[in-house]
Amino acid sequence: MSLIALLGATEIGLIFALVALGVLISFRILNFPDLTADGSFPLGGAVAATLIAGGHDPWMATLAGTAAGALAGLTTAWLNVRLNILQLLASILVMIALYSINLRIMGAPNMPLIGATTVFSPFIALSPDSQYVIQPMVLAVIVVIAKLALDAFFASQSGLAMRATGANPRMARSQGIATDRMVLIGMAISNALIALAGALYVQTQGGADISMGIGTIVVGLAAVIIGETLIPGRTIMIATLAAVLGALVYRLFIALALNADFIGLQAQDLNLITALLVGFALVLPSLKRKLAAKRSAASKGSTAHDAR
Amino acid sequence: MMRAKGLFKTFNPGTPIENPALRGASLDIPQGQFVTVIGSNGAGKSTFLNAISGDLIVDQGSIEIAGRDVTRLSAWQRAGLVARVFQDPMAGTCEGLTIEENLAIAWQRGNKRGLKGSLNASLRSQFRDKLATLNLGLENRLTDHMGLLSGGQRQAVSLLMASLKPSQILLLDEHTAALDPKTAAFVLELTDQIVRENQLTAMMVTHSMRQALDHGDRTVMLHQGRVVLDVAGEERAKMDVPDLLAMFERTRGEALADDALLLG
To answer: 3-state class of B37 per DSSP?
Structure first.
């Protein structure tokens, strides 16, 4: 694999690290199976691309895309918390609705950004020949900031309340935590991160496309699961680090698979590989448990019991 | 101080499985009193407790805690007044969080939660001191996950969490029912100690008449969603389980259907 291909994989991996952090919040911390991502990722991209193409400041455009994502997450959470629509269903409704909304925002199925000023432009201007190195570097800084900000938040009183909300809502309420509000805020943060990823994605890829969101949630989930397998651990700092690394490893793995001619895989096989990978990773824990149960059944007789 | 007046609650009203769980239950608990509540299955004990905690909102009646009408408030809004230990050791704590994180959550019960760090050195040392009073060696395991603890240890920590912040009433919902007898005795002893030391107003729901008479200052019995027996002081001190049963039968003019359940 060439250096440019490696840097390209790193770049996309870093963008999906933001998606993975968002998925970590919804799926793992809030225990909220959320598919909004497939709509909020292109939403962030559509808003940012439209604003940039309209000549607005790229940072403002990125921020606006991120805010739009927060709104999408808020909508999903509101459907669940206030209208009692099943979590998965609420997120699918918002995802479907966003498809139309994204088309409306862009006014067309795609929006090219070739030659437009992006958040990367000033950095690339410093050293015009090294765009392939500079974009991943800028993204890495953004990802590190996001990771550290989340670590700090989840160590705060509010962040701890949010974790309790996902882990044991009844206990959380008995401790005075407004669990509904926590779900609303958490889902907003989650989808804001995913939309931020979308907004940055269109700026690295030279444009937005209506179908760019397909499979976002699966990739995000794959990253989280791979991360958990690579560095298991239950502290937040490790979980966020694992999600980021998982996204990077996942994209590198995909790039390697596609580059290895002897396997015979092509770009169009990407979603199939992802689905297989995530499917396998989802079954793995229960397989492990079954195996462990068999093993303990074999060595029965010594059941330790802590008296107090 | 807690005052529940004429509570009514019917589950699934207007359906074949309609269940009038509370039918005018009333109870006054003065400041500093420890009340034990008994009753057979379906007597409405848990419903009564959940009505006071705010886990469910009653159809009729009023609930006042420390002079404040909380009848329409949800559980999280009442949390500043009400502390609680659940029956299921898994229910009162977060197993995915560490011991210190669980304590930090309880430390803010009823307070506004901001972006300040949830833990710091002085909090940790306070938590360590509190945990040391349990004599379970947990003071050296602050960063262990709650899931690693046994049921008894978790109930002990739950009790500690419930007493970290002042409350107007402590609700104990058959909190020893899921434990083995030896562990249950330990947790009950700890309960007495914590209630006494913090001079708490408490209400303990239990399945066992023995427990109900041995602990607290006053015993009430719920039957068909109402308080049917209320004993305290001298009269209660002389009482044994058969006396309580006989008294119940006299009051109701009927024998309890499931004596066996209550005698334990």
So the answer is: strand
